[in-house]
Amino acid sequence: MEAFRGLEAGTYDVEVESNGAGYVSSVTWGGKDLLRESLVLSEGLDPQPIQVIMRDDGASLSGSVQIGNGAQFAQVLMIDEDGGGIPPRPLYVSSSGSFQIQGVAPGRYDILAFDRLAGVPCRACNVKPGPADESDPRFDSHKRMNCKVLLTSLLIVATLPALSQQRAQSSVRKFNVSGRVVNALTGEVLRDAAVRLVPTTDRGRAINADAGSDGSFEFRGLEPGKYSLVAQARNFPQQAFEEHENFNTGIVVGPDKISTGIVFRLRPEASISGRILDEHNEPVRDSQVMLFQRSTDTGKRLVERRSQTMSDEQGEYSFHHLRPGMYYVVVAAQPWYRRYLQVNMRRRGPSAPAAELDPALDTSYAITYYPGTSDAENAGALIVHPGDRLSADFDLTPVPSLHVTLLNTGNEVGRPVQPNLRARVFGDSSVFVQPTMSWQQNEMEMSGIAPGDYSLNLRQRDSRENRTSGQDISLRGDTELDASAAATVEQLHGHIKYDGANTPSNAFVQFRDVNARGGMGARPDEHGEFKLQLPHAGRYVVSLANAPGYSIRTISTTGARVSGRSLDLTGTEPVELTIEASEGVAQIEGTVMNGDKPASGTMVVLAPQEIADNAPLFRRDQTATARSR
Q1: pTM for the whole thing?
Q2: Which of 195, 427, 512, 612 is least surrounded by Cβ atoms within 10 Å, i.e. has the fewest?
Q3: Cα–Cα–Cα angle for 498, 504, 508, nearest 5°?
Q4: Helix (H, G, I), strand (E, B), or coil: what is residue 78?
């Protein structure tokens, strides 16, 4: 802010130069327009700030001048007809006769051109008119820069498309969004909260503002439309206006819509923390701690992993920045002494058993759900409200580890198949298990495994390529498994075709297991080709991500059955998949009414006619604010 001190009483003209950063939109002081009025100062006058508003959305002007055989001595002048806006200015004319100016304020202008080598200077414009016009009285105007004569000896060719567009835009009424940010629990104002307004049709044009000391915020000069309002503050995670799950209430701006006086209630962050101890009340460090949340995002009640961390040296863990919801905490760990066990991994002969492990050390920890159960059905939910600080402690007790023997591994001694064992948590293959392994010809043994439900995938390479076989197993005691009997999952080869002008460069084809046992995806190459080894047979929902403006139109396949967007995979034969994606996604708009008034914050669901096999076609939205005047 600039300050002018020591001014005497009197009348002053105020001029503001833009320095090429835009144009001056207005200069006001105490209700006076200083672009058209003088500033009058008197003794004892209470000083008020001069408010200058700059804009960077000015129009551009270009054209050319022709003077006989050249334009080396042309002069072009641009004059505001009503005397306001930008001051009169000469425009630079190149040797070819072209001229250009940018950052022109909205208004009506005269463009004058002169031959600077002809005649005498005009006293008003300080330019030289042609001989034929020296006596023209209009060049002797008493008003500064008020000449409106085009010399007949000159031809000017100028285009003003951008200026015309600016005039049209300036006639569109602008609107404001304003309100206050408060603590949703206490109603206390949140100072210095960061607020962002995002047009829903162009999220790259976000506007940022900081709330004042009274929690107030304001966005001015907005075009009609729908906006997302987002805010965050210290100890208040980023959240949208009236947000719940992944939906929020938008702000509608336009004629007869009230978009001011908004009360943005920010919910304080919550947390869950705890400590993990062993049977001797000692901390269990490096435990894998997983946070799951019950969700209905896909239209189906699921328990999905939200976060993961490791316990520290004191066995402590914490999850911060949590939103309201229903959470579950799960711990996967192993006794500290198993990390240091040195097991003899030498090959065993028919009469040479493997080195025996002390039964007291041959233990493991089962997957443990809070408050201390190994059964997912008995897991205790933690209901998190805004601002909660919840505690979830664990006491782990070791159990005798199980031994799993794989028969008919089909490989020579020392080069066994590669097993991948994952514990299933809430039905999903979430936790990688690293068992102790020993092997001999055509046989492998895995130990250090706790009772529970697992997915076992076996990968081996034949003469052509890697092959994967897998099965789900429930382990309650020592067991033998025939590796050759495991179902082999054949590789899937796919091709996606785009029916549109622009091909997405970062598209991703997703395959989600309908039984919530995980999923996979693949990124097509520049030819639209992709390969994928799905973890097991079953039904998968196919969807397309990272392809704005595109949606799947049809799916066809050989080696599997397709129904809508669902793929039934047996895994017994190779699958060739063809996806056709269309550009030009349709948009449906409407208004939910409660009686004769629009109802904001209402959930609207768009469901496909064939529901069972078309989960990706479901769409949900939440109605925006639509308060009328």
Answers
A1: 0.60
A2: 612
A3: 90
A4: strand
Instruction: List the structure tokens of 138.
Output: 């209009």
Q: Which amino acid is at 119?
A: G
Collapsing DSSP states into helix, strand and coil, what is residue 626?
coil
Encoding tokens for residue 527? 């030819």
Angle at CA 328, nearest 5°, toward 325 and 330?
A: 155
Tokens describing residue 120: 């005498």
Neighbour-count burial of 505, counting CB atoms closer than 10 A to its CB (0-12 exposed, 13-18 middle, 19+ buried): exposed
List % helix, strand, coil for the chain (3-state, nearest 5). 5, 45, 50
In this predicted model, which residue has the larger pLDDT, 170 or 209? 209
Query: How many CA atoms within 13 Å lie on the side-chain side of 457?
Result: 18
Query: Per-residue pLDDT tens for 20-40?
Result: 556 777 777 766 777 777 777
Percent of the chain with pLDDT over 70: 70
3-state secondary structure of 461: strand
Calpha distance 5→574 (Å, rounded): 84
Q: How far apart are CA 466 and CA 470, in angstroms?
A: 13
**Sheet of strand 155-159, all strands in order from the earlier edge strand to the far edge:** 98-104, 59-66, 155-159
Neighbouring C-beta atoms of residue 222, cutoff 10 Å: 18
Report the alpha-carbon distance of residue 517 to residue 288 in Å, rounded.
19
Task: Output DSSP code: residue 625.
Answer: B
Nearest to 107 by CA among 144, 89, 81: 81
